[in-house]
Design a protein that fits this description.
The complex is a heterodimer of chains A (188) and B (98). With 188 residues, chain A is mainly alpha-helical. Helices cover 74% and strands 0% of the residues of chain A. Chain A has 2 domains: 1-80, Four Helix Bundle (Hemerythrin (Met), subunit A) (Up-down Bundle), CATH 1.20.120; 129-188, no CATH class. The N and C termini of chain A lie far apart (56 Å). Residues 122-136 of chain A have low confidence and may be disordered. Helix content of chain B is 80%, strand content 0%. Chain B is built from 3 helices and no strands. The longest helix of chain B is centred in the last third of the chain and has 31 residues, at 55-85. The chains are: A mainly alpha (188), B mainly alpha (98). At the A-B interface, helix 1, helix 2, helix 3, helix 4 and helix 5 of A face helix 1, helix 2 and helix 3 of B.
């Protein structure tokens, strides 16, 4: 079976879940629809040859982050109040801004693939960031696209080119953990 | 390849996230809409990683880490605000309005 029909089914699922997520009155239902969107996106990542990212998406986003959200919603016992949607004028503004943004992004999305196709392999400054991915590019060149997104090909640039950002990320996580504990302890 | 459709889907999801932020007053749902926008951007990175090398997928890894940290700190702040005002509705959180 070709990937395209599966992609479109998953895309429709993702968009419908996202829409339901923003219109549900109950925050718990909202969070569960967001989990549905994230699962659809994980499946789309598999179709786009990013298997490792798909697994991390399910583990970190659908697993850890959304459980944290649901935990807080249930801890605060929300969802008993009425609707928290804003009034008519704000809704109109939201619609106009949303349509304008969608138009811009869609225009960009239509323009980008064509210009990228010509750019492939001859990017300006290709020597700097892309040169480090010689191994991955070799895999791409062999047409062995199924193994692009596996752990090995991600780990290679992660622990070579992006080693310093990786370490800084660990400091960020430590700071976030400490900050969360301090915020949860003190009276504001 | 599915590059074009992926970018369009990403645009749609990002727009839905923005509309959600403007439409809702519940602070936690607002946070979830921000997560939706981050997810849309991640989809763009993964789609473009097909053409431009795995660097995009590494960036997605970092975005997820930052999103997790942001959710932890943000929800701690919301908990503290809830203890102060007994509500997470943004119309009750207007200390800076003067």
């Amino acid at each position: 079976m070709s990937a395209e029909p599966v992609f479109y089914i998953l895309a429709v699922l993702a968009v419908l879940s996202a829409l339901l997520c923003i219109v549900q009155r109950n925050p718990v239902a909202s969070a569960l629809w967001l989990v549905s969107t994230m699962f659809s996106l994980a499946a789309i990542y598999v179709l786009l040859n990013a298997q490792f990212i798909a697994v991390i998406q399910v583990l970190v986003y659908a697993g850890a982050v959304m459980v944290l959200f649901l935990f807080v919603i249930m801890l605060l016992n929300l969802g008993r109040e009425g609707s928290d949607l804003r009034g008519k004028p704000v809704r109109l503004v939201a619609l106009v801004v949303g349509l304008a943004l969608l138009g811009e992004l869609a225009l960009l999305a239509r323009l980008t693939p064509g210009s990228l196709a010509g750019m492939q392999g001859s990017l300006p400054g290709a020597g700097t960031p892309l040169g480090a991915f010689a191994a991955a590019q070799a895999v791409l060149a062999r047409g062995d696209s199924a193994s692009v997104g596996v752990v090995g090909t991600i780990a290679e640039p992660l622990f070579r080119t992006y080693l310093v950002p990786f370490e800084i990320t660990s400091i960020l996580l430590l700071a976030a953990a400490v900050g969360a504990v301090v915020l949860a302890k003190r009276k504001l | 390849m599915l590059l074009g459709p992926s970018l369009l889907l990403s645009a749609l999801l990002f727009t839905i996230g923005v509309i959600g932020v403007m439409l809702r007053r519940n602070a936690i749902v607002l946070f979830m809409c921000v997560e939706l926008m981050l997810n849309a951007v991640n989809l763009t990175f993964v789609a473009l990683a097909q053409v431009l090398g795995v660097g995009g997928q590494v960036i997605v890894f970092f975005v997820m880490t930052v999103a997790a940290a942001e959710a932890a700190v943000g929800l701690a702040i919301i908990l503290a605000i809830f203890r102060h005002t007994r509500s997470v509705d943004l119309k009750n959180i207007n200390l800076l309005q003067g």
